[in-house]
Amino acid sequence: MSRFASMLKHIKRDRQLLILFIPCIIFYILFRYGPLYGLIIAFKDYSVYEGIMKSDWVGLKHFQRFFDSPDFWLLFKNTFLLGVFTMLWAFPFPIMFALLLNESRFMRFKKLVQTFSYLPAFLSVVIVTSMIIDFLSPTNGVVNQVLKAMGFNGVYFLAAPEWFRTIFISTEIWQHMGYEAIIYLAAIASIDPTLYEAAKVDGAKRFQMMRYITIPSIMPTILILFIIKSGSIFRIGYEKVLLLYNPMTYEVADVFSTYVYRKGLLETNYSYAAAVGFFEAIVALIMLLISNTVSRRAGGKGLW
């Protein structure tokens, strides 16, 4: 049987699944691959009146301008540190949370904790940042009220550069820990229960079973998610940073995405903003490739 005939056979066999997959394909074509056409304005002096194709080509002019800008190294440092610190602190929490939930013997308590841990993931970024601003308010915020009751002076957290990364990372953990733990709980649920039964017969304790059975069994899932997360170190969403930062915290809070927002939408410097965004995407791709290579060599697992 020829390769083409074999492909037609598989298509006919899986036609119902392929039909269900069509909306996903359309979505990616329209909202992921279609907009890539606009990247060429990073190499042009784009004019709204001239259009994309009629605008003049300038080559790497905007990239060179960005690399020579004093903002480049500040943005690079802020984006890298915020991404790495978020990765180091926020990535392990869902794993530990899933392991602790799995070890809980009280099903009602387990389900209640799971339910409350999922809720923050369904809140919009605007709601989350509004809650943060209210809690950390220097006048009537809950945190400062507690500090004053304990005899300490109030702190204007959102205006203090040294507190910005701590606040951002803490809220990332709180918002995504429960939701991301679902993946690890699903991986734990797929472990063969006879492994635990055999370990009990051999006299293994609960911690030993977690260490030698649960964690090694979910390690492929951990590695895959680690690779995906590593690729997003430089792809920090601008929404939360934009809503939390202010001129007093620019020195630690300003990242590539917020810089693109300011230059592109506020200052209407579209070509320059596109060049910065393109550079950010390239660095993110490089990080993804490096993480995948390291993961394959260390654990034998990767995205490809």
Helix/strand layout:
Layout: H1 3-13, H2 15-33, E1 44-47, E2 51-57, H3 61-68, H4 71-90, H5 92-103, H6 107-118, H7 125-135, H8 142-149, H9 161-189, H10 193-201, H11 206-231, H12 238-244, H13 250-253, H14 256-266, H15 270-299
Antiparallel strand pairs: 1-2
Helix pairs in contact: 3-15, 4-9, 5-9, 6-9, 7-12, 9-11, 11-15, 12-14, 14-15
Please tell me about this protein's structure:
There is one protein chain. By secondary structure, this protein is mainly alpha-helical. The chain folds into two domains: 1-59, no CATH class; 69-299, MetI-like fold (Orthogonal Bundle). The protein has 15 helices and two strands. The protein has helices spanning 3-13, 15-33, 61-68, 71-90, 92-103, 107-118, 125-135, 142-149, 161-189, 193-201, 206-231, 238-244, 250-253, 256-266, 270-299, and strands spanning 44-47, 51-57. A two-stranded antiparallel sheet has the order 1-2. Helix 4 packs across helix 9 and helix 5 (92-103) crosses helix 9 (161-189). The longest helix is centred in the C-terminal third of the chain and has 30 residues, at 270-299. The model has no long low-confidence stretch (mean pLDDT 88).
Give the radius of gyration: 24 Å
How can the largest sheet be summarized?
2 strands, antiparallel
Tally of individual helices = 15
CATH class of the largest domain: Mainly Alpha
Helix content: over 70%
CATH superfamily of the largest domain: MetI-like
- The amount of beta strand, in percent, is under 5%
Q: How far apart lie the N and C ends?
A: 28 Å
Q: Which spans of ≥5 residues are poorly predicted at pLDDT below 50?
A: none
Whole-number mean pLDDT: 88
CATH topology of the largest domain: MetI-like fold
Q: Which CATH architecture of the largest domain is right?
A: Orthogonal Bundle
Helix/strand-derived category reads mainly alpha
What is the ordering of alpha helices and beta strands? HHEEHHHHHHHHHHHHH
Secondary structure: number of strands: 2
Oligomer: single chain
- If strands are numbered along the chain, what order do they take across the biggest sheet? 1-2
Shape assignment: globular
In the residues, how many domains can be counted?
Answer: 2
